[in-house]
């Protein structure tokens, strides 16, 4: 995946499934620079945790710094959390 390619719903769903499976813990979630793809995936997880969008975007912007991508924020806002398969034994933080 090229760092400039937009993240896809498929990638976020696959990452979410891995992150939400306790047998995979502990884990670290990161991309090449730890900003855009990581921030988008974490933003979608925050949405799944029912954070409000203002808080999600504030966290994303804090880590993206001056290189915020509005398309990533739009992706998070439009992401359908109903598509995420949440395991029965999901982590307590969810």
Automatic annotation (TrEMBL):
N-terminal signal peptide: none
Transmembrane region(s): none
Keyword check for Cytoplasm: yes
Keywords: Cytoplasm, Hydrolase, Protein phosphatase
EC id: 3.1.3.48
Xref: Gene3D superfamilies: Protein tyrosine phosphatase superfamily
Gene Ontology, cellular component aspect: cytoplasm
UniProt GO MF annotations: protein tyrosine phosphatase activity
Coiled-coil stretches: none
Highest taxon, organism lineage: Eukaryota
Compartments in which it is found: Cytoplasm
Hydrolase recorded as keyword: yes
Protein's UniProt name: Putative tyrosine-protein phosphatase OCA1
């Amino acid at each position: 995946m090229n760092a400039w390619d937009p993240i896809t719903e498929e990638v976020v769903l696959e990452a979410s499934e891995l992150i939400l499976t306790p047998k995979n813990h502990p884990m670290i979630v990161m991309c090449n620079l730890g900003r855009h793809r990581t921030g988008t995936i974490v933003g979608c997880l925050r949405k799944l945790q029912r954070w409000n969008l203002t808080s999600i975007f504030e966290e994303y912007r804090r880590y993206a710094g001056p290189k915020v991508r509005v398309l990533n924020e739009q992706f998070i806002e439009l992401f359908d959390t109903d598509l995420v398969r949440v395991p029965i034994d999901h982590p307590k933080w969810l």
